[in-house]
Amino acid sequence: MLAVLGLIGVGLLLNPSADLDPIGTLAALAGTALVSQSAIWMKRWPVNDALSFAAWQLVLGGMMLIPFAWFVAGAPVALSVEAIPGLLWLVLLNTAFGYWAWVRSVKKLGPNVMSMFSLMNPVTAVLLGIGLVGESLGLLQWAGIGLIMMALLFMKKPAKPTRTATAALEGQPGNKSVSVRQ
In whole angstroms, how far apart are CA 99 and each of 14, 28, 50, 52, 108? Predict the structure, then answer.
């Protein structure tokens, strides 16, 4: 339910005058589905070294993309000296560090928490647009941010134990609770 609330919030973040590219939208949805599936797999795999795991995934993923990139964009061009700092930023900090942090977080927090936390990506993009480019938001877009934040806050609210769960715990070995009979 909270995930649906967050997705509605993301939908409200879209600029009403945005001209969405159907291929780009499908690619984004497919990418999101693949990231979700990989988060579930990462939780199940016995990974002790998140850095090596992330490095191998990035290397293999990059190798799989080479034929598609070559077909769409042609042969790679030689790098200029001016492009090297930007490439290092993208490769080391933006991709390698970010992906390592993602893999480690999925292992520590679980795929459910991280999938909900990924709802912050569009919020961050919109807030950066406001701060860096001077964009402005309408009422619906602010409501979308509110729905996303509400979904994240409710996700962190601890669940109250139910009467059935409390009754199931009574009599369990190691349980120090005392039941009072009337």
Answer: 26, 17, 9, 11, 14
